[in-house]
Fold each of these.
Amino acid sequence: MSNKNIGSGVIGWIDYRLPIFSTLKHTLVDYPTPKNLNYWWNFGSLAGIFLLIQIITGIVLAMHYTPTVEGAFASIEHIMRDVNYGWLIRYIHMNGSSFFFIVVYIHIFRGLYYGSYKSPREVLWWLGLVILLLMMATAFMGYVLPWGQMSFWGATVITNLFSAVPVVGTAVVEWLWGGFAVDNALLNRFFALHYLFPFLIVGVVVLHIIALHTHGSNNPLGIDKKGPQDSIPFHPYYTIKDLFGLSFVLTIFAFVVFFAPDYLGHPDNYIPADPLKTPAHIVPEWYFLPFYAILRAVPDKLGGVIAMISAILILFVLPWLDTSKVRSATFRPIYQKLFWLFVVDVIVLTWIGGSPAEGKFILIGRIATIYYFAHFLILMPLVGVIETTKPLPNSISESVLKKPIKGGK
Amino acid sequence: MFIINKIIQIFFLLTTIVFFNLTNVNAKSNDSNVDKMHFSFDGIFGLIDKASARRGLQVYTEICSGCHSLKHVSYRNLSGIGFSSDQIISFASQYEVLADPDSEGEVTMRSALPSDRFISPYKNSNQAKYMNNGAIPPDLSLVVKARAGAASYFYSLLNGYKEEPENFDSSNGYYNEAYPGHIIAMPQPLYGEDVEYLDGTEATLEQEIMDLISFLTWTGQPELNERKSMGFRVFLFLIFMTTILFISYKKIWKRVKAGLI
């Protein structure tokens, strides 16, 4: 990162002492990007924008929110009714978390399809998973803050999971609660941590971007750049493409925020928390449902918790479970089919997670859970060895000129 | 402009999906006895009928407020359903609230101001419980959006006091077809002709229920009308901006696609 072509004057003077402008130019303007990225590559920058939306709306909400069991619910209604455009800010924040997860999940599935986790991008992949874990913790704690029925009972169910830990379980749970029940102490610390974690995410995002720019973006062909003819500068080509994608997604987002703001939430969370009244079905937010299904698929508390945590941790070793040398699923006929089967499996798990744990749902949930782990532990190592891959193109620029890369496959 | 057509199609498709789900979510309920009804505030253009909500306020004031509080709503909020400030002042002044302690430390009462919240029928939850066989009548501010099935559920609930089945044990409560479990602590609140509407509308049971639902939908979502009209403008703007950005994107990328860069 040199300060060469950043010019003279004030900017040049500062940049000579603190290379902030040349760094920005390097990451947002000059960054050489493969020519052939399709629309699935839009979701990284989209995730960044949604993180920003969450932080900005969240800070405004925090100015009006009261983190006490007596005042929390009423302060949310105060925001919805008395604060100028408070309803808009809160609906953006509520649905923004859902959209953040949609965007990040698509970003992860894109990585799975095109082998973006493979050498030399393993650490980039890990950092992404760390962001996912932080997001999950943040979203869970955020959902507790309105102190409605689902907030309270969700917090009760999830914090009680730690009691599955042998010997020290109960002590750990009481330490988390700061008392002997889900109460004010928990609400207070969740508020503090819910405010802190997004900034930790920002930190990891910076590392994620540094790791990304070290070896550059992967691309739909999964082959390395051979020379300057394979890449174009980020600006204006990908800035305009990302802006178009952002505007498109914001349109859908606005539709939900303005016309169906409570669609993704649960009606029970508009009932104030009542420790004496358990809701008929305690369901987490939709983005946790696959993991909730895995938790409930195991007929043992500790086993269920281990399975649920493993479902994410297994992704950390994915670069070594995948034995194939070829990155992109486009050239891997068997893995390509398995990928879509895996997508279906996750959708099934989402559906099971939202259904009551009874009858046929239990069986389907168990089969889907076994398949989830089999995909990573058995199928991925095996397929990489037995599969005959299609011939890879010689270079990115060559294939761009032959035929435009269509989105998706 | 094939691609633009395609984008418009996708927009249309997504919009329809969300829209149908949106109307479906009202029918989604844990009980099959909930009929899907149509309300003025349904869909993306549907707004709350203010005249109906004002009649609903009358039903709430004369019937429901005997047991149910409305503690998140202030009298001043009634401007949202078309009350003038004079009307609000005189409406609020009918009620008494606790005043601040006077200079001698005595607690006194004063008449309510527009800035006060709707007064509650009970001093506290223990009294509410004591007066109602142990069941606290829920606060109605958010009740429509706090129930699966929302407005349709309330329509069915208030219409659901049908003849009880033969083996029904009435010692636990009243029979209601729409209530989950069918045993409800609330006796039938509305029969028709329960109020005499100030605007002369005939107070049939159907009319009273629809008016009450309009009012309680408004208390739960006082921003609804403003939200939808703002949403429509935002949506149009974003479609316009997306189109412009798409055209710019295609223009900027032309040279790359042609292999010149």
Amino acid sequence: MEQIRAIWRYGIKVGIIGGLVLVLMALIGMIEVFTKRQVIADFISMGHVLYLAAGLFVCYMAAKRTKPAKPLWVISSSFFAGLTTTFFLVLLIILGRYINLRMMFINASDLLLNNLLTFGVEGNSGLLLLLYVGMFTGLITGFFYLLPNVVRTVILWSLAGLVFAGVLQDLFRSILTNNFPNIISEWLLTSDGLTMKGAFAIFIIIALVIISWSIKGEGIKQGWQNLPKKQQLTWRTVGTIILLVIILVAPWRLGLFMSEVLTIVGLYVLLGLGLNIVVGYAGLLDLGYVAFFAIGAYVTALITSPEIMNLNWSLWAAIPFAIFFGILAGVLLGVPVLKMRGDYLAIATMGFGEIIRLLVLSDALRPFLGGSQGIGKIAKPQILGFVFKGPQEIYYLIIAGCLLVIFVSWRLKDSRIGRAWKAMREDEDVAQAMGINLVSNKLLAFGTGAGFAALSGVIFGSKIGSIYPHSFNIMVSINIVCLIIFGGIGSIPGVIVGAAALIGLPELLREFAEYRFLVYGIALVAMMLIRPEGLWPEEAHKRELHEGTAKEATG
Amino acid sequence: MWSIGFVLLVLIIIGSILTLRAGRYTTVQWFDFVIYGLAQGSIYALVAMGYTLVYGVLRMINFAHSEVFMSGPFTAYYVAAYFYRSSLLESHPFICLIIVFIVSMSISTLIAFLLERIAYRPLRNAPRLIPLITAIGASFTLMYLFRGLYGTGFQAYPVWKVFTGKWALFKGLEIGKIQVFVIFAAALVMIALYLFIQRTRIGKAVRSVSEDKEAASLMGVDIDKTISITFIIGGAAAGAAGVLYALVFKQVFFMMGFIPGIKAFTAAVLGGIGNIPGAMLGGLLLGLLESIGPALFLDGYNIVAPYQLKDAIAFLVLVLVLIFRPTGLLGERLAVKKA
């Protein structure tokens, strides 16, 4: 009796939720689109990996929640979770036979329902196969859960690494073909997906690395800490130099497409670092940040383009103007919102950002700003006859900008101003009582951030050559805020990691562009629920977050 | 600061005088503007209720409320299209309409409920920035989930024949049937919700939670349940507003919630966020400002295509309210402490 109740509570209930999620996943067309990319050539596609991974996750959750964790109970609840999940899919398929689901759900295609969901077997035998797969997955997951922790970690991480390699195969392919003899890439990769041999090799290598790290890892860490300070410094410098060299040669070793991705990520890093000063250091949530980016780009366009003002200056001359107007706008827009806090500030700045975009877009200002047609023919920067024309050249401009901004942020962080910002972020009233001038410090934060945004605007404008108001919508602001928080608010490496994860990854997975924002949204929510401090948090901020929860838990 | 406000006021007055003196619009046109504005405004008001109620109990801006607004009518579209194809729409228009409303409101309610349950409840004690980001994430998730389900295209809402055409009033003034219906339906839902909040035990619980959570829980109010109910009420209002919006604009698509959502939020702030009559007043005012504003304030200056600046006016109103009267027109009755 007890066990039946446990099966219901931990197995079937989880299975119902999982089943509904999988049905949704199928109906939004994710599985079908993802089957177009092979993870291991001619063996398994992305879509099926996703499908199976979701099923495994459901069973794993069921196994994990089962209490008490007796082996038989765990296996039975995992088994029933798998069965229930597939039961929902079977229902969907049967429903699809009698009703034309496509009337409502545009992606519920025949191929999906009668072939892909049942692993290529059509008809009733496919339905049976699906149920068997569900039960089998449940059993396997149950046994897997009972394995010792080390074994579980090794298998999980190796599988995850394998899938990751399959997903990012384009990246690996361009690294391998551009830098190594063809033999390696041919052995590892086909034109679509990993080879079987390659997959095994990757799996085994990752497993070995994890095993050896779990045995030797602590020793290596200890050894590092025992090294004299001077030697540590030398190694750090060597590491930094190697990193710099890699960064500098990257665009020429990765090909055009990857350089394009790198420049986009770089631009967002630049924007993110600027906003990080406003949001991360000073704690002022600014959702209209794109306005300053737009101002930088438009000032550049007006100054360098033969259209509209016909000044035709060089790009270098435009930079100081753009930054000046950016800072000016930052301060001017900062003044009215000085007294606002939190959500109110976010909304007011968002309003400002949208007003600026709508003004630029309107026909009323078309003679001055080009309206929806935008402004074209923006100058490319050149230095001693060297023209920064393609992504591979612009990349260096962006790297230079990033280094400048990283340096400034790093120096500002623990400076007098940086500390004042931090105090303001923690508690405005107390900061004011301590003699911090809120007005000047806030305006300084807005101005600095806006200046950096304008700088990115200059680079952006000259990179794409012509600008339109649509490039400056609120999504850009939201993207930047999200990447900062995703990476870890207030942390410089966090911004880079956040930009790579939220901007770079989706760029690499272009054919899945349709689901980009869906995954993005889910990732944001999941991140906030599981790890609110971000991927690479700043130490102090992480401490604060956990202190807060600890306090609330006890008091 | 006040000098900026003064300059703006003078500009608005001069613009209005110039427009009126130029006499470019007839009385009929002004009347149309007002009616359109009221219809639009009553839709904003309904959505604004959701923002205000949630802000009242959780002190957070529910960014995903615009997707709650979208989900209902987008789903109900398929019901309406079915009625249209089976010509039930011809024979029983009102029954069909009621069913469409019920479907839309229940889907929106379900989404709002799940949203609170999955995304917001675990974060109730987190720092303020975190629920805001979660709300943005949830908004994306919902928007693109529905895009995946129903596709990217605009779906044309079927037309109810009973609502096409106009009624003639005196002196050549006419009033569109659909506008009348929208205003009345919205008023009905608003009054119902207002009475629900003011008169019932559950409504009392909602008000007590927004006043003081701890005291309410000491008095035996189930906080979790009350917050869920708040989301449900807001979701129902948004679902109803969504159908009205679809009837007026005759189309639905997955991003339809974004702009009305921001407008409705503006309306909530305008009336005083956390304040229910304020949301209604703010919605109506914003609708009016948006429909009359471009013609009245901007046309006098001979600005090209002033209607493109309709949204800019709405955002300007938002920013100005936040600057000069952050408590809104009716004051923030429910939320004493901010930030």
Amino acid sequence: MTVLAAHASWIDASRREPEGPLAPLQLVAPDGSLTEHGRAYGVDATLASSLYRDMVLGRRLDSEGLALQRQGELSLWLMSWGQEAAQVGSIRALRPSDMVFPSYREHVAAMCRGITPGEIASQWRGVSHSGWRPDDRRFHIYSLVLGTQTLHAAGYATGVAMSDSDEIVAVYFGDGAASQGDVNEALNWSAAKSLPLLFFCQNNQWAISTPTSQQMGAALHQRAAGFGMTSFHVDGNDVLAVHAVTQAAADHIRSGGGPAFIEAQTYRRAGHSSSDDPGRYRTNDEVASWELRDPVTRMEALLRGLGISDGFFGEVQEQADQLATEMRAACRSLPRPDLADLFDNVYAEAHPTVTAERRQFLAHRASLEGV
Amino acid sequence: MLRMTLGAALNTGLRTAMEKDDRVIVMGQDVGALGGVFRVTDGLQKTFGADRVFDTPLAESGIVGTAIGLALRGFRPVCEIQFDGFVYPAFDQIVSQLAKMRARSGGAISLPIVIRIPVGGGIGAVEHHSESNEAYFAHTAGLRVVSCSSSDDAFHMIQQAIESDDPVIFYEPKRRYWEKSDLHQEASLGLHQARVVREGSDCTVVAHGPTVATALAAADAAQEDGFSVGVVDLRSVAPLDLETLREQASTSGRVVVVHEASTFGGIGAEIAASITEACFYRLEAPVLRVGAYNLPYPPAKVEDHFLPDVDRVLDAIDRTLAY
């Protein structure tokens, strides 16, 4: 009779347990003091002020968007409240020539790329399916089917890799989208082809009402290792840490190191959208605990500690209010599209069905005039 | 004039398109060193290099999704989906992304992408390797859907599809890959024109892709019985060449549509409705459809009973003549 050993050490040699998660890098503590890493890294006050300004402007843009929705000017708004550091810190660490593929909550990142508040509002007012041309500001239109844009970014990066350019490509997605097949295909694809692509995951803890604990069995930055990709874990509410980590990841990619993955821990302080009711699935205590880690108040405390004057904060607030006024005006003056024009944009080349139906539509509309 | 197999004509067409325009790239599973499971891309990687002809990971959504990104970067990708039944993982990327991005961007974005799909049954394959799914894509605004049936069309249509600034789903009749026919230097028709393959005054059979040969065989058999049956090769499933269809239907007054896809909700239903609307008073009989039964594709040993064959087409011709 053959006896099988219960615990053979040679079996253990073939076995690997998943590694544990890393602690997220933090340079500025929630109270605005520098951490040990923060002290070692140092603070560029000009950069810090500038990042702060973008966060405040972005927050104001978001709150105005929600107000416009509540007043019936927008049909839907997807709030970015709480995620300002993740978006500003990352996009500001890229070069303006680096192509960016957003998901649909990246209003603050869009603003940093010069997308105007009116352009951002356009989609949510129901006058278009996207508000801007993607090529001139190197910021693609939003993708509403979660994770699909990661593959577009991988394809774009494939094209970049075929050229002499030192551009990189960045793609935004969230913890929920990370469960999609497309995201995992894109991760695998870019690792296999060593593409110049940065995966920036804003883990805002919630996919509508589903928490990350029910979404995945391993932290997202750990998953990257399985694909053969460098990853970073950062406090996504610390704009200086996000900026530093994104710069490091971008340098890694630009120097030919292949794709990189950043998991930024942040929090969606509002509901998923203006239609959501987060009180049904999460506690006030949880919300309050993240309020203490808010990215904007944290930076304000740091800057005040650095001796930045009240005048600066007043000026930023004034700019934010101007932006909100501009957004409101731009939103309300967005032209209502004519359905007849939409027939022209389905195909690049003439299409008999479209031509015939456009004619039918115009004839029908004309027949109703004066009725 | 050359004579070659349909598969070789596609290969020659791809080669010609790649020579003409260095933005044209070929991508898909096993399209490189292997030349594709049907050898349609045979030798292309050797000629044009691994940058322009490359193997992708085994992920259909990834193939189409990355092709979109490449097109955004200025390339003109030609993707191969290995078999018809494997296109579904890419369904979202085709229907929600590829088809709609031009409209979503207000015309700012063009995605000149060709998705080649070997289609249909008749090769004794295992499941998911014999499907006819053109109706799904024909139903989607933003896509063009074409289907070749001969070497000449294969050669010219693949080049026309690549030159199109719109996304094109390009169906290749896999059981006809090895059939030889003549290839002419110049294209005789545009990508979306139907071809009147055979004139007929008693009845018109409309077919596309693999069923064009079936329709012609049925027309031959009908002629022996003294009936003049015409055959129209659709070539383009979306948009349809309604002008040619109307002309032929008005001439013969009787139309039978044949395709390998199931009849319910199929392209035949669209053709029947369009012809009825346009030629109601010229018709002698209702437009009849011959297609697969509304079953999942059956095991290969019984596919001959499932697919429309000459007898079923003749039966439909008989029924339409009886009105």
Amino acid sequence: MKLELRDLRHVYARGTPFEVEALRGVSLVVEPKEVLAIVGGTGSGKSTLVQHMNLLLVPTSGQVLVDGADATTLRRSELRRRVGLVFQFPESALFAPTVEEDVAFAPRQLGLDEEEVRERVRQSLRALGAGHLAGRSPFALSGGEKRRAAIAGVLAMRPEVLVVDEPTAGLDPLSREELLDLILGLRESGVSVVLVSHDLDEVAEVADRVCVLHEGRVSAVGTPAEVFYGDPTQAPATVRVTSLLRGSRPEIGDPVRSQETLDALRALQGT
Amino acid sequence: MTTRGLGQFYPLSSPVHALDPRAKLLATAVFVVGLFLVDSTMGLLFVAASLVALVVVSRIPAGTFLRLLRPVLFIVALTLLFQVFFSREGVTLFEWGFLEVHSGGLRLGFFLALRLLLLVSSAGLLTATTAPVALADGIEDLLSPLKRVRFPAHEVAMMMTIALRFIPTLGEEAEKIKGAQAARGADFTEGGPLRRARSFLPVLIPLTVGAFRRADELADAMESRGYRGGEGRTRYRELRFRVSDALALSLTLFLLVVGILL
């Protein structure tokens, strides 16, 4: 599905001395079957923005469109099923006695029959490599295991767009790798993924497009090459290296992913 | 985001804000006790006028102060109605079916409601003009004579400070968890009271777990900075009881005595 944000503005605590304008007119499209990364410093409005994608936050002004239709006309439960939102540190919302029960929460709220619920729980846990955790208590797991259980809990709704806010923050390198593979796998199966991240290196590896937020506005949007070579000081390590070489060797091109960069460097060496 | 209500501190610079917290605590205690000794309407109105004057001196905008009182207005209104309709004293002013309004009831209703309002206002003025940390320091000092009988004055004050400090933090955490569960299809508005209460379990359980985790972390952080309880602990901000504090306390006492005598 196509998710469109039109000129979103959001003001917190409006009309009080604590008023903060978090979004100042953001327009953005999440295309079907793409991985869109949203990057930006702390306080740039990333987390506020993603909570508008399933209308957990209602914009002060502006519109959210789902396949061209105004999202406010959809049933909220329907919208929240189609746009799955994984909060930052989602493990802080685990509550059930077992991982299985916790993952089953969302599909049960959808009113699916018990067999279908079980099937979805099994599938989403497997997708996260957490099938063996099903019977355990979520409070007895390691940080990485909790994170997987929590993400599985949203995946079990089979969303058409998955929005993940800083999913790899605080994870070990291996878990991070697996999570990025999951994101790519979801895109393969036709799900769009919105990835909010601080880590430009991981964004470089998985994103089809990158959107840079700055003080509540979109300051750049485009392919990773366009965005990162546009401002190589705010870029992944690969781009920072190649952009230094580009002065003397422009034929290196604009590789972003580590494999592309490696190939480009080898080609350079070969000539 | 942050909850505004009774007990909220409004940092301004005013003579009332500048007073020693101990003076304000004592004055409030005196005020609360004194209120129950005032038995004439004239006296109560006099005390009310004094309190209004105090609020003006504190520079807290009247609208803001009234908003502070909003949570208790319901109880005040209930007190008033109860007295007005169920007291059978004095002349009958009004009759409608089984409802009768008597002059005595009306007077008593207003009297009790005003007293309740003044009670809450005085406590509200205390917390609105005193920073939570200063308040805890003041309480600790006032309770310190009890240390002789092994009452943990410092620990009690520290617990109060921490509890106050964590109200907004837990509030924010609750909002976040509510959002996360809503994203998984939780609905907190549908169904009867029982179902609604049940729907909050997925919020309350992680909130409680998180609060315990936070408590552990805070204890570790405090200990790693050398906290070992009140024994031999010094203060960054020393409290000083000045002449102005003594005067403010005497003034409160004087106004109340006038109120009682009226």
